[in-house]
Amino acid sequence: MSWQHKKQSHQRQQLFEILFEAIFFLVVVFIGWNLWVVVKGGACYLKQALLSPELRFSIGLSLWTSTISTLICMILAIPCAYVIVMRESKWTKIGEAVLGLPLSLPYLVLGLCLLTAFSTPFGKVLKELGLRVVFHPRGIILAHILVNLPFVIRLITEAFRRLDPELALTAQTLGASRFQAMWYITLPLCKVDCITALILAWSRGLGEFGATLMLVGVTRMKTETLPGNIYLNISTGDNNAALAAALILLLLSLLAQFIGWLVTRRRDYL
Question: What sign does the CA torsion over 106, 110, 115, 119 have?
Fold first, then answer.
């Protein structure tokens, strides 16, 4: 490479570095300013807000629905990811693409699809059988699953793909079944990735609002999650209560991210 080409390459690298630093600075300023507004505005009214039965209800509902939906996502995602990775074929590739479609759709559209599906005669039959989801807390769990399941499947699939496939095959040649190879070989080696996926899905479920709004609405003390509580307080002009709820949601999300960081840090040291 000539001296001129080296000089041009160095200039491009400097330009990229300047662009990166500028974007990094803008993002830090934007996020830092907004966090400061939420913390400063919400901290003053946090104690008062926690005494409200409505806010305590929304916290409990958010924690319960996010936990249940995340566990269901993990139970469904691990077998799906295992099949996608271990049975590489045209049909599994098509299935992987179909399962990933919800990732490209707005959450409001996903919620509308659920609302339309459960407004059909089939949905009415389920309601008569006691499986009501529209304008019901069960619908929150269903909305979370629809939003998070493709995300969790993709994360676990990528984790399985990073493993050496010979490990599971060697276990099968020694007499282990496919299920035993997955349970005793694949899952332990991907334990940290699965925990990370679980934490991220739980955090996403905690802040999910679009699909939930379309399917169950926001009814006080019934389908009111933390994001719903913020929405109701803003719509009624109670900005202080909204900031307090936003601060609680922020603290819960930061706690989840901190746990995820600890898990990742432990993996790096192993």
Answer: positive
DSSP label of 104: G
Say how far apart CA 22 and CA 25 lie, in whole Å.
Answer: 5
Tokens (6 digits) for 227: 């994001």
Q: What is the pLDDT of residues 183-220, one digit of tens each?
A: 778 888 888 888 889 999 999 999 898 889 888 888 88
Q: Can you read off the two tokens belonging to residue 270?
A: 């192993």
* Cβ atoms < 10 Å from Cβ of 37: 12
Q: In angstroms, what CA-CA distances link 102 with 114, 119, 120, 149, 201?
A: 12, 20, 21, 9, 15
Residue 12 neighbours by CB under 8 Å, 6+ apart? none
pTM for the predicted model, two decimal places: 0.83
Cα distance between residue 66 and residue 106, in whole Å:
19
Q: How many Cβ atoms are within 10 Å of 246's Cβ, its own excluded?
A: 23
Residues constituting the chain: 270
